[in-house]
Amino acid sequence: MITLENSVEEALQIEIKKTLENVLDYWTTHTIDDLEGGFVGEIDSKGNIIKKAPKGIILNARILWSFSAVLNQSFTDASNEACANRGYQYLKYFFKDKQTSGVHWELNYDGNPIDKTKKTIGQAYTVLALSEYYIFSKKEEVKIWAVDLFEFIEKKFKVSDGSYLNEETKDGVLDKAKTLGTYLHLLEAYTTLYRIHKNEALEERITYLFETIVNKFWKNDNFLVLEFDENWKNISKTISFGHNVEVPWMLLEIAKTLEGEKYVNVILKKMQQNIASFLKEAITIEGTVLAGRNIVSGKLDYDLNWWVQTEAMLACYTLYKETDKKKYIDNFNRIWNFTKNNFIDYDNGEWHSKITEEGEKFENKVTMWKTPYHIVRMCLNIMPTNNNA
User: Fold this and answer.
1) What is the pLDDT of residues 339-348, one digit of tens each?
2) What is the torsion angle, in degrees rounded to the nearest 10, for the CA atoms of residue 288, residue 286, residue 15 and residue 314?
3) How far apart, in whole angstroms, are the C-alpha atoms of residue 34 and residue 361?
4) Cα–Cα nearest to 181, from 252, 126, 240, 127
5) In sequence order, which residues have a C-beta less than 8 Å from that of residue 122 and are 6 or more positions away?
6) Residues 98-155: tens digit of each pLDDT
7) Which of 34, 40, 24, 123 is nearest to 73 (CA)?
8) In this structure, are strands 174-175 and 167-168 parallel, antiparallel, or unpaired?
9) What is the C-alpha end-to-end distance of the chain, expressed in Å?
10) Cβ neighbours of residue 171 under 8 Å, at least 6 residues apart?
11) Measuring CA to CA, how many Å separate 102 from each of 92, 94, 98, 117, 121?
12) Residue 385 DSSP code
């Protein structure tokens, strides 16, 4: 593995470890719902808990994954373990559908379902979380549920041509659109499940998802398609710069786990082309990473999102490790310096989720989609790996 010059690398590792510890501390001390169980559903930008806020499956599954992942990388703090166990228990007793192995989309603050919709991405994140938690806990019931949920997804959301539908709406109708986010996080979940459940059908689905993302969503080396209709017609209205840096590094890591690593060079070549377009258009000299571009008008979206910064850093860091080209670590440092100075909330904890074009920092610290997942994943992928699996 190619690394930075020792002193620089050591300084970066200290910063990243501190960032991870601060984020974990925020979630262990500010988000526990001692009254109703589990975790609170929403916290505003100043750290105030929004009373009676609903609780979403994305938030709760990502919490379980985050604490399980840090435990599996030797952050075996008692509070981290308590949060992982709390997260699993809440999923099991409140989010799990009593009639199926699937999970509800959203609960009331007291744990009663208010949206029983089954969305593919919600099931995917749950498979991801359960698989990671099983690696830590070794509880057989966790593995059984993860496998059952995989089979539930395959039965309910996979159609005759092998592709996946997006969701079941409240009236039971299936959304037939095919979206990048759904495919990517199904692939992430299935790849993690495969670590604990070597299965031919699962392996086939991993290969399908991987090749579909590469050959359909990433057919253009410069940018990825966000959404197709049921006939694979591109219906995307924007280019998401965040997904254009998230997908390549994730696929490169997954390619290394596939048989024979036959995809690694292909992905690495495409990734370099993709990141070249990204660096030209999406990142400013100050290190800000823009949200995206409207395909029709060409207008750039200058709002900044926390998760896009983390994925851009991971993409640049990954390419630096693979190529030893200085331009990638230079861009990593630019983004990291901007992030440290603007996104990390040193007064109230955690990170700001959004910075507007005018420089206003706002939006909540905890919501359905504002979770520890992206920051934790970035930190764990930059820090030296010491997995228990």
Assistant:
1) 999 999 998 8
2) 40
3) 29
4) 240
5) 57, 58, 61, 103, 105
6) 999 999 999 999 999 999 999 999 999 999 999 999 999 999 999 999 999 999 999 9
7) 24
8) antiparallel
9) 21
10) none
11) 10, 12, 9, 10, 11
12) P
- Sign of torsion, CA 52 58 59 60? positive
How far is Cα 164 from Cα 160, in angstroms, rounded to an integer?
9
Q: What is the pLDDT of residues 25-80, one digit of tens each?
A: 999 999 999 999 999 999 998 889 999 999 999 999 999 999 999 999 988 889 99
- Containing 342, the helix (H) or strand (E) segment is helix 326-342
Edge-to-edge strand ranges of the sheet holding 238-240? 238-240, 292-294, 300-301
Contact (CB, 8 A) for 47 and 349: yes
Asked if 93 and 144 touch (Cβ cutoff 8 Å), the reply is no
Do the beta carbons of residue 184 and residue 213 sit within 8 Å? Answer: yes
Per-residue three-class SS string for 40-100:
CCCECCCCCECCCCCEEHHHHHHHHHHHHHHHHCCCCCHHHHHHHHHHHHHHHHHHECCCC
Q: Which tokens belong to 47?
A: 């750290």
Helix, strand, coil percentages in the chain from 3-state DSSP, rounded to 5: 55, 10, 35
**CB of 337 within 8 A of CB of 11?**
no
